[in-house]
Amino acid sequence: MKTIDKIYINGAFVTPHGQEMFDLINPATNQLIGQVRLGDETDAQLAIASAKEAFKTFSQSSRTTRIKYLQKLHDALHKRIDDLSAATIEEYGAPVSRAKASTEMALAAFLHAQEVLYDFEFERKAGRSQVRMEPLGVVGIITPWNANANYICGKLATAISAGCTVVIKPSEMSALQTQVVLEAFHEAGLPAGIFNIVNGLGNVVGAELTRHPDVAKISFTGSTAVGKTIARAAVDTMKRVTLELGGKSPNIILDDADLSTAIPMAVAAGFMNSGQACIAGTRLLVPETRFDEVKELLKHAVAATKVGDPTDANTAIGPMVSVKQYERVQSYIQSGIEQGAEVLAGGPGHPEGLEGGNFVKPTVFANVTPDMKIAREEIFGPVISVLTYKTEEEAIAMANDTTYGLAAYVSSTNEARAWKVAEQIVAGRVMVNSLQHDPMAPFGGFKQSGIGREYGTFGLEEYVEPKTIIKG
């Protein structure tokens, strides 16, 4: 069993003031694999003070220096990439393929940040005036358990590019992953105080970051409910916020789509990251005229999707992260049944032979209506709701009939037609005939899916403030 009893403040591993221990559980077996000692408000305050002091000099650093630091972080983490993948599998239950993809994305974040930084305009002209894009200050970073290391690296890389210092509050459920990342970052040898990491609870360490007057910005990825709490608290000190929140992403299959390609892609979109993904395409909108074809193809696609041991290279869906999350998903599956949806695949309970972990049967509901709970609320598990439409206009209206607006998907053999549909969907990202990610393009939500953007130039703009100097 592993014990993590240090946090990282001012360039050193230190014993936290907080005393609480948090159990780390392998979700595939529900066995105890470690404990982490959690920091408290005092620890957060010390970390903030460290970042504030470091900001005085780091904010004045050159583009060249920041690019060098990003390279150092990349190179140090690259040496530990296998350790990070192993921790992601053990602690989170990510299947091997998902764990590798996630860790590679975390590593690449530093290179993408360098690419943006090379060309970013920190000095601009506006009318007769000079505009300086200046770093905001200390940034509080709060990351989720479904992609903890990925978000630590992405948000930290952007902050460093801007010249900001940070205090990171990672998910307490991801402490093994955080420890690997932290040990690598320490080896990178950056000046003390540029980054500080405090394991702790959201309502303790996260709350202190949100209310502390010396924190200029919060970058948070997580649920819409918590995002709203952060936004309310941040207003008191007028913090800038980037909030990447929940989603209930529609996937429109147009009537001319090649179903042999579109349906397996739809299942992959709905079940990505074992369904524990904010961009998962969990509302599948299909033409009424092709409903029978779709149902048969869905049955075959789900049957071919392996659920089980995350260390098995053939596994596509691992366990839910916790018993609590397993029970949440089960409650939604039961709700779908009670409200009259047809269970096309899966259903309640564990898959046979996987009763010891938090495994869910990958589930597809047919004959879902827009008013059903499973069609409106984010489940965060491998559950797809199939709704039918009569016309393209109805499909677009159904896609937009949600409080969320993070991502969407469109499939069609006519790319021009799909593009026209994509332009009418209210979402931060729309993928046409694709599940691809573009790390240079902005990512974030409309409506209750968030505020602000991550990635690329748009993401870096979130960490700087324009100062106008008017010449006489």
From TrEMBL:
<keyword id="KW-0560">Oxidoreductase</keyword>
<dbReference type="InterPro" id="IPR016162">
    <property type="entry name" value="Ald_DH_N"/>
</dbReference>
<dbReference type="GO" id="GO:0004029">
    <property type="term" value="F:aldehyde dehydrogenase (NAD+) activity"/>
</dbReference>
<protein>
    <recommendedName>
        <fullName>aldehyde dehydrogenase (NAD(+))</fullName>
        <ecNumber>1.2.1.3</ecNumber>
    </recommendedName>
</protein>
<dbReference type="InterPro" id="IPR016161">
    <property type="entry name" value="Ald_DH/histidinol_DH"/>
</dbReference>
<dbReference type="InterPro" id="IPR016163">
    <property type="entry name" value="Ald_DH_C"/>
</dbReference>
<dbReference type="InterPro" id="IPR016160">
    <property type="entry name" value="Ald_DH_CS_CYS"/>
</dbReference>
<feature type="domain" description="Aldehyde dehydrogenase">
    <location>
        <begin position="14"/>
        <end position="469"/>
    </location>
</feature>
<feature type="active site">
    <location>
        <position position="244"/>
    </location>
</feature>
<dbReference type="InterPro" id="IPR015590">
    <property type="entry name" value="Aldehyde_DH_dom"/>
</dbReference>
<comment type="similarity">
    <text>Belongs to the aldehyde dehydrogenase family.</text>
</comment>
<dbReference type="Pfam" id="PF00171">
    <property type="entry name" value="Aldedh"/>
</dbReference>
<dbReference type="InterPro" id="IPR029510">
    <property type="entry name" value="Ald_DH_CS_GLU"/>
</dbReference>
